[in-house]
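Run Translation initiation factor IF-2 through structure prediction, thanks.
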Amino acid sequence: MMIKYRVHEVAKDLNVPNKEVIDTLQKYTGEVKKHMTALDENELDLVFEAFTQKNSLENLDAYFAEGNQKETVVEPEKPDVSIQPEKPAASSQPAKEAQKPARKAVKPGKITPVGPKPQQKTPVPSKPVQNTQPKKPQPVHNTDNSIRRPMGRIVDTRASHVELDKYNEKYDRLASEKINTNNTVQKQKLTQRSSQYRNKPRNSRKETEAERLRRIAMERKAKPITVQIPEEITVGELAMRLKATAAEVIKKLMGLGVFATVNDVIDFDTASLVAMEFHAKVEKEVVVTIEEQIIDDSEDEDDNLVPRAPVVVVMGHVDHGKTSLLDAIRHANVTATEAGGITQHIGAYQVKLGDREVTFLDTPGHAAFTTMRARGAQVTDIAVLVVAADDGIMPQTVEAIHHAKAASVSIIVAINKMDKPGANPQHVMEQLTEYDLVPEEWGGDTPCIPVSALKKTGIKDLLEMIILVADMKELKANPDRAAKGTVIEARLDKGRGPIATMLVQNGTLHTGDILVAGTTVGRVRAMTDANGKKIDSAGPSVPVEITGLDDVPTGGDIFNAVSDERLARELVEQRRNALKEERFNARTKVTLDNLFDQMKQGDMKELQIIVKADVQGSVEAVRQSLEKLSNDEVRVNVIHGGVGAISESDVMLATASNAIIVGFNVRPDPVAEENAKRDGVDVRLYRIIYDCIDEIESAMKGMLAPKYREVALGKAECREIYKISNVGTIAGCHVTTGKITRTAEVRVVRDGIVITEDKIASLRRFKDDVKEVAEGYDCGIGLEKFNDIKQGDILEAFMMEAYRE
Ligand SMILES: Nc1nc2c(ncn2[C@@H]2O[C@H](COP(=O)(O)OP(=O)(O)OP(=O)(O)O)[C@@H](O)[C@H]2O)c(=O)[nH]1
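Sure, done. The structure for Translation initiation factor IF-2 is below.
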């Protein structure tokens, strides 16, 4: 920083009048300066040069002589020590005066490289000068006006008097100024520095942060970082991985046209674009779940696949002979193979036909079948539909057809009870065509086999047909891999612990295998086949009963043989927690109330409906009207229609197919009602077809009016009657349960019969109108319209609440 050195200061330091300095400057520069004018370096040089030359000595001897004379004056007793100087060219007085200014002239010279050295601060004794300056350049006479520009500054240090205080003061000033500009100066002026920093404590922190960012940026440039980015990542997490601030990332995102906050989730593509902006190398983070680690879910190669036995389920109307048929098939097999062995029921069994095998699920009826399907297990390949030849197609037969169709399994019709005199297989086949099941002999693709479970006739034909259909389906599996399958049924045995019947669907299950079945885990301790025989391994389509699981699994659970028991236990723990959460959140079933939302989210492509009515005509009418409601977004699909009360089976089908149930002049039976409530199946009951069509149409447009439900508030018993003119009858009541509110609606119940419904017109305690009266208190109640209240009447207070599911 430049130090201002003004004319008057220079004059003062040179000990000459201001005018002399001004004149000197004017002489060499031609400019007239004022006494306050600050001089630049060149001007100062000129002035000092001029004054130095003006006061120069002819030789040193003269100077020393003069000095000695002086000393002689001061110390006359030592005259012999003095050195006689030669006569100076100029008078000695101006020369002496020039000494001081010459030294002073050094001060501003600090800004030039030839400035004074610090040691000059120390007083210079007059005597040693001759030693320290033996080669002093010869003084230049200033006899003419032409002044020579000096090559370097000549410093005259001959002074006997140096103003050290002034020097120190200037040095101090310089030092403090340096502190301001360069904080590496640590030692000097501590108090000054600390006060300076005290005033700006935040600056230092900001600097650190800025430095850190600079360093990271440098590091990033020097060595690009590699970031792992998963499918989705929050902005904050991405910033952390990029070693950047969230603000930086948000800024880059804005640049990409994405406006996100620190907690927002961005996808892999966006995140990688941002990462690239930060010069980072992007790698996709692959999240390996425990399932992926321990369960081999790879596709089988065709070369590894071998044919497997078909898995068959028997369905049909009650008493049409399902159990008899299953028994007939089983015994035909037992007698053929296991010489009269007594077989135990394990839920499934295999029969042999030559070198071929067929696996039957020994759980007649579609209940178990649909339950499994509802749990996501696709177990069966073929459904045998049992229809009694003398009875024909009955409601449950129709249900079974719909269930089988919904599960996309092949249907083989077994026309049973052919031994009966009233057997009419032709009629059965005719009926089947009504349900799109055209018999093969009529050119369709539904095999119809006449059998008699009682007489055990046609069983072989049925089995052969099953194998034929299976062959057409080309059912294959790979026995050389870890087993995978489905739990058919399970129970807890007091002695043996949890026992599960499992159907191996792919791979081979061995004793000792670690198993995960739904939310249970364990090792296969013992394994028996359907005949109760101990086995060590079971291949595809083989049903087995195993022990060794830590808990009872549920029918329909999928099981896997896994590679690591510790991870298997961890997986089961995760599943248990997930299940808890799922139960808590409850699966979003389609209802008319959430239909529009689901349609909007694109979750709904088909609205499945089950129609139940009192007469077949209504079912058809409704089916046609509903299917006409299909639009571009949603296809309305009536998957089942039937006559009669809404049954447990309807609810089951609705659960499995995510359908809603529509009933006309019918009611759900108690079990169905309970199940529908439990499973969240929407059951809508109507008396008029138009209402149904209208409501479903509104639901599809998202304009369904909210539903109302009654919320009971409390009950009051009428103990006195007061007839008041102009007001009417007031019931003196005692609140027995809950509370009565002024805005409530009231139902008057006399001897268990609802007399009327009305609104409260007045509610009083003593003479005051009140908003509500709590249990145990007396009050007076006046009703809006009903005036015929009697002693002993019960007033039920309730309110209607609008709600959406
Ligand atoms: N005449 C004759 N009767 C049969 C035949 N098959 C079954 N039945 C009889 O029909 C009745 C019902 O047979 P089930 O096998 O119990 O019928 P289901 O379909 O299993 O019946 P549910 O288990 O109640 O659904 C029994 O009395 C059988 O004896 C058959 O082929 N001919």
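The mean pLDDT is 77.
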